[in-house]
Amino acid sequence: MRVFYGHDRVPGPGEPVAGGTAKFQRLAARFPNNPTDFTLLYVSTTWLPRDLRPLLSLARRRGAPIVLNQNGVAYPGWAGDATEGLNRPYRRALQAADHGLYQSEFCKRASDVFLGEPQGHWEVLYNAVDVDHFTPAPETPRDGPVLLLGGDQTQAYRLELALRTFALVLRSEPDARLLVTGRLVSEAEPLLGELGLHRKVELVGRYTQWDAPNVMRRAHLLLHTKVNDPCPSAVIEAMACGLPVVYPASGGTVELVGDEAGAGVPHPDGWDRDEPPAPEELAEAVGKVLADRPAYAVAARARAVERFALGPWLERHAEVFAELLAPR
Prior knowledge:
Elements: E1 3-4, H1 21-30, E2 40-44, H2 52-62, E3 66-70, H3 76-79, H4 83-96, E4 99-102, H5 105-114, E5 121-124, E6 146-149, H6 156-172, E7 177-181, H7 189-195, E8 201-205, H8 212-216, E9 221-223, H9 233-240, E10 245-248, H10 253-257, E11 262-265, H11 279-291, H12 293-307, H13 310-325
Parallel strand pairs: 1-2, 2-3, 3-4, 4-5, 6-7, 6-9, 7-8, 9-10, 10-11
């Protein structure tokens, strides 16, 4: 079994990752990356190789099975006129795959709409978290409450919605603080000034998977503002650290958090336009969760351990790889 992930190099355990590269980092620790003499090709829509078409052809010539980890798709609400162009390589990978791993039920529905039905076998396999590395803090942070906006903020509305929500939370929680992590695609300073939040918001920047638990342990709650998020790893990582989640009730996040590990806020849901909840509604949900935070925190940790632990996820990959490579 020699697996190639479509890229000459996979980030090492101590290096920063974004989006789909985190799962490759975990997989490569168990199934090392073999760019030259691979017997199985594993690709993901979140990190497709630039030479996808010739690589798929090479795999076919070698008789190497192709596995696709299917995450999100482009849809008009965020991609506009670029939707079809962005989806074309996703569709090519899906149609070539011998086995598809959809990251959530939502991913399967979205893929069926924009990419079509898969040609090969498929299943739903949620993202995973190392529950021995991502663990709750020995003691709950004493200051705050502290809200965390985790991951990369790759759409401007996500940061704006978090800041406007946080400004409303401060009315009932004047000692609250907000941590904002990752890469920002929009300037934070103008809105921080408008809302008077400079002393209340910390821009943490990017962090490695190794450092992620320490970042999350500084907070009491994850505020996740992306709508239609396919299967956000930041959410299950936060849950493993005992952080309840407040989020727009759409996408795969609903499947991850369930009813007991946080609070989802309904909002207009569709493909043509992204319409997140109003800041007032998210702030109300934050208040609800903070009022019963210990119970939510216990449930969040338990749900991550029971449903999204890394060990079973890696074992399922081993089973799939062995089945595909078995002599016929």
